[in-house]
Specification:
- The longest helix has 20 residues.
- Helix content is 32%, strand content 21%.
- Strand 9 and strand 10 form a beta hairpin.
- A six-stranded mixed β-sheet has the order 3-6-7-8-9-10, sandwiched between helices. A five-stranded mixed β-sheet has the order 12-11-13-15-14, sandwiched between helices. It has a two-stranded antiparallel sheet with strand order 1-2.
- By secondary structure, the chain is of the alpha+beta class.
Length: 374
C-alpha cells in the first residue's frame, strides 16, 4: 500500500504538470475543449466541457498504475470517455503509448495535425516529476492491490479550469472560485465493500511563483484502513463552542440555504466551486461541513477526499438516507456498485446528495433543520 500511495502521488503530480502545460498557451487551450453530449453529460450544467487534458490525465494514470500493478488494471475507472473527436469528425481513442514519440503521434491526430502541441503534451505525459515529499516511510497496510479499485477525476471543477481566473490564496481562508478549485483526485476503495481506503488530491494551481516561475501545486493524501488512519493534514482544531460553518454550491436549493443560514448564521455559510474543493475545505478546517442536496456529484468526485476525511475521523454520508434515518451509520457513501437502473455517468452519481464532515457529532445538527424540507 505504501508503494501504491507513492505511485499515486507521483502520477497525480504528473497530472498536475499536464494541467499546467495545457493552460500555458491560449490558442492550444481553445483546441482542447469539446462539449460532452448524451449520457456522459452532467445535467447540472448548461455546458459541461470535456477537455483533452482530462482524457490525457485519466489515461496516463490508468497506464502508469496498470503497468506497476497489473492486477488493478481492470478496476481503474474515471470520469471521462477516452474517445475524442477531432476537427475532421474522426473519433480517436486516446491512450498512452509505450514511447513519447508514439503518444505524440496519436495526440497529433486528435489535434488536427498540430505536432507542436502534441509533442508538448506527450513530453508532460512521459516526464517523471520531481520527487514528491511525503512521509510514507513505515506505512504498512494489510491490503493487496488485487482487493482494490480506483476512481479518477482528472480535473475536478473543469469549468473553473477552463475559465482560468487567478486568485491569490490566503492561509486559513476559503475562496469561492478560481483556478485553485481545479483538483486532480485519485481515490482507492475496497472492491468487496466499497469503503474508501486511500486518497490523493493534487491542487495544480495552489500558488504562483512570485519570481515568474509559473504556478506551483500542493498535494494532500490520506490512508484509512481499520485502525490505521494517517493523513498529510492534521486534524483541525475545533471551532468555538456552538459555532458551525458550512460550505455549499451557489446553485443549492433555496430551502437548504435558508435552513443552514438559520443554523450557522449568514457569516458562517460559504459558497465555493467544485465538489472536490468543497470537501478539501472541510479537510483543511476552512468549513465544518459541506452539504449538497442534489445528485450532481459522482463517485470520482468524492472517493479521494472521502478517504482523507475518514483518516481524520470524519466521513461523507448520503444526505437523503440521513434524513430518513435516526442514525447516519448506514449512510456512508460506498464506491463499488453502480445503480443499474441508470445510464451513462448517472450510474455512478451520489443520487442522495451528501454531507461531508470532520466530526460525526455535526451530522445530527445539520440534518435536524433539513428534516421535512427535502
Amino acid at each position: 500500500m505504501a508503494d501504491l500511495l507513492r505511485l499515486l502521488l507521483r502520477v497525480a503530480e504528473k497530472a498536475a504538470n499536464v494541467a499546467r502545460v495545457c493552460r500555458q498557451e491560449a490558442p492550444l487551450f481553445q483546441l482542447l475543449v469539446q462539449e460532452k453530449t448524451g449520457d456522459d453529460k452532467n445535467k447540472k450544467f448548461v455546458q459541461d466541457f470535456k477537455t483533452l487534458a482530462d482524457v490525457v490525465i485519466q489515461e496516463m494514470i490508468r497506464h502508469d498504475v496498470g503497468v506497476k500493478f497489473p492486477e488493478m488494471a481492470d478496476f481503474i475507472n474515471g470520469e471521462e470517455s477516452n474517445k475524442f473527436e477531432n476537427g475532421l469528425g474522426e473519433s480517436v481513442t486516446v491512450t498512452v503509448c509505450a514511447t513519447e514519440e508514439d503518444t505524440a503521434a496519436l495526440l497529433a491526430s486528435v489535434l488536427d495535425g498540430d505536432h507542436t502541441a502534441a509533442s508538448l503534451l506527450a513530453r508532460a505525459i512521459h516526464q517523471d516529476p520531481a520527487s514528491i515529499q511525503a512521509d510514507t516511510d513505515g506505512l504498512t497496510v494489510p491490503l493487496s492491490p488485487s482487493e482494490l479499485g480506483i476512481w479518477i477525476d482528472p480535473i475536478d471543477a473543469t469549468s473553473q479550469y477552463i475559465e482560468g481566473r487567478e486568485e491569490v490564496l490566503e492561509e486559513g481562508r476559503l475562496f469561492p472560485s478560481g483556478l485553485h478549485c481545479a483538483l486532480v483526485l485519485i481515490g482507492v476503495y475496497l472492491r468487496s465493500t466499497g469503503e474508501p481506503v486511500m486518497g490523493v488530491i493534487n491542487q495544480p494551481f495552489n500558488y504562483k511563483d512570485p519570481a515568474g516561475g509559473g504556478w506551483k501545486g500542493k498535494h494532500f493524501w490520506g490512508v484509512s484502513c481499520g485502525s490505521i488512519n494517517v493523513c498529510s493534514e492534521t486534524r483541525p482544531k475545533a471551532g468555538p463552542a456552538g459555532g458551525l460553518s458550512a460550505v455549499l454550491s451557489s446553485s443549492e436549493k433555496p430551502v437548504v440555504k435558508e435552513a443552514l443560514t438559520s443554523l450557522c448564521g449568514p457569516d458562517k455559510l460559504m459558497f465555493a466551486s467544485g465538489a472536490g474543493y468543497k470537501i478539501l475545505c472541510v479537510i483543511q478546517g476552512l468549513a465544518d461541513v459541506y452539504v449538497l442536496s442534489g445528485g450532481s456529484t459522482f463517485k470520482w468526485d468524492s472517493c479521494a477526499p472521502h478517504a482523507l476525511l475518514r483518516a481524520l475521523g470524519g466521513g461523507v454520508v448520503d444526505l437523503h438516507k440521513c434524513l430518513q434515518s435516526s442514525s447516519g451509520a448506514e449512510a456512508e457513501l460506498t464506491y463499488h456498485q453502480p445503480r443499474t437502473e441508470c445510464k451513462g455517468a448517472d450510474r455512478w452519481a451520489n443520487h442522495g446528495g451528501l454531507v461531508a464532515y470532520r466530526d460525526c457529532s455535526q451530522i445530527s445538527r445539520i440534518i435536524a433543520p433539513l428534516k421535512g424540507k427535502l
